[in-house]
Amino acid sequence: MAFPKDNEQVQRLIRLAIEEDLGTGDVTTESAVPEDARARANVVAREAGVVAGLPLIELIVGHLTSKATVTLQVDDGDRVRPGDVLATIEGPAGALLTAERVMLNFVRHLSGIATLTRTYVDAIAGTKARVYDTRKTTPGFRVLEKYAVRVGGAENHRMGLFDEVLIKDNHLAILAERCESLTDAVKRIRRKHPDIPVEIEADTEDGVRDVLEADADVLLLDNMPPDRLYRAVKLARELSPGKRPLLEASGGITLETIRAVALTGVDRISVGAITHSAHAFDIAVDFEAEGCKS
User: Which has the closest alpha carbon to 50: 81, 96, 7?
Assistant: First the structure.
C-alpha cells in the first residue's frame, strides 16, 4: 500500500515535530560536532515485530538537509527480528543527529501499532471476520495511525465524522427524547447523504430489531459478551437473511476474547486498542564509528 507522503497533514506533522524538538537550534550538535563532519547510521530493530512508517525517515531527514541519502533495507509491513537493519542513512553528521529522535518517535509509534494490529489479525485467522480500527487515535496522527493499521493487516473504519454515518447510544437517546423513530431518521439521513453508508449501534435484542427495521448498512453490536453476541447474530441473520446488514462487534474486545467474538459469525470486529494502546516499538539509530582518522 502507498505511504501517504504527499498528504498535507503528514507534512504538517513532520514540520511541527521538527520545530518542537529543534526550537532555536540543536545546541549540542552545533557546538560539539564540526560542521563538515559526515556520518553513516543504521536504523536497527531491537525487538521482533512489524515495521511501519519507514518512508518518514527520508521525509524527516530531507527537511533538515538535501545532502543525505536514505536507503530502506526492508519494507513497511515486513516482520523483523532484533538486530535487523531497517534503513541506512549517510550524510552531514549534524543533520542526522538532529533528525534522530524525531524519526524514531514516528517510526517507533507506527511500528508499535502495526505490530499490535498484526497480533489481533493473527488471532482470528481462519474466520470470516476482519479487524477494524476506530477513531480512538492520537489527535493529529490519524492519517498515519490508520496507515499503520493497514500495514498490520486490518481495515480502516471511518476516517472521521464526515465519511460514514454512525448512530450510537447518545444519538439514539436524543432521537428517543424527541419521539422520533430510527426508521424516519435513516430516511432523513439518506435523503441528505445518499452515498454515505449508515451504521447503527444496538446492545439489546430489541435494538437489533429496530436497526434491521430501519434498514441500516451495518449493525454495530456493542459491548456484548460472546454468548449474547452469538444470539444477536443468529437473530439478525434470521430476520434479515443475506449479506445486509454487515454485522460488527465492538466494545472491550481483547486478544483473549477476539477469537470467540469472531466465531459468533460477525463480519467485522472494531478494536480501539490497536491505536490507543500500542506500545512504542523498540528501534535505535546506531552511528558507525571507524576510529580516529589522523
Answer: 81
- Residue 76: the pLDDT is 98
Take residue 235 and report the three cell numbers written for it: 437473530
Q: What stretch of H or E contains 241?
A: none
| Known active-site residue 21 | no
Helix (H) or strand (E) holding 71: strand 69-72
Q: Specify the pLDDT at position 181.
A: 93
If you average pLDDT over every residue of the chain, what do you get?
96
Write down the catalytic residue from 26, 145, 222, 267. 222
Respond yes or no: is residue 201 known to be catalytic: yes
CATH of range 8-120+279-287; options 3.40.710.10, 3.40.470.10, 1.10.8.60, 3.90.1170.20: 3.90.1170.20
Whether 46 sits among the annotated catalytic residues: the reply is no
Topology given in CATH for the domain delimited by 155-270: TIM Barrel (3.20.20)
With contact defined as beta carbons under 8 Å apart, do 275 and 133 qualify?
Answer: yes
Catalytic residue among 76, 78, 145, 201: 201
Q: Domain limits of the chain?
A: 8-120+279-287, 155-270
Low-confidence ranges of the chain (pLDDT < 50): none
| pLDDT tens column, 201-232 | 999 999 999 999 999 999 999 999 999 999 99
* 178 counts as catalytic: no
pLDDT at 294: 61
